[in-house]
Design brief:
The chain has one domain (about 30-145): Trefoil (Trefoil (Acidic Fibroblast Growth Factor, subunit A)), CATH 2.80.10. Helices cover about 0% and strands about 35% of the residues. By secondary structure, the protein is an all-beta fold. It is built from no helices and 12 strands. The strands form 4 sheets. Strands 3-2-1-12 form a 4-stranded antiparallel beta sheet, with no helix packed on it. The chain has a 4-stranded antiparallel beta sheet with strand order 6-7-11-10, with no helix packed on it. A two-stranded antiparallel ribbon has the order 4-5.
Length: about 160
Amino acid sequence: MINEDNQRKGECKSDEEIVPESVPDKGFWLQNQNLSKCLKLVENDKIIGTSCTSPTPPDMLWIWTNRTERLLMNVKTLECMERQSFDNGKVSLEPCTVTIRWQRMTCTKEQYGIKIRWKEVRDPFLHLDNNFDVISKENGNQLWKSNERNLCDANITYAGTE
């Protein structure tokens, strides 16, 4: 659908109408190597660690947006991870905005996996606690893996971010 400004305008689909096979192949799952759990969206904005499934449903798929100010966006909601405080803080999904510093992240390839951190002073880590809640943690330092071989380099240009 095209609006009056000649821009594409999408139509919203209910969860029941989403066909997993139609999800872009650029989405990837993220699995915590310490606890062997994949990240999944539950409720409206809560992210937890749970058993990984195949095929991967949209609420468990993620994409990196942009190349310089990277945001981690959920494929189902098209919202980005945002930490609520520095250490042991809740992580939720919020509308993507590169100007919000608590959404900007970095990805570092390590020998046995990747590390994901928020991009700022003292850089807290993306962390899965023992209750399988996703939090930001100063000394989290957990390794993650994905089905995307070059995860730290994978990104798409998403026009919805500011």
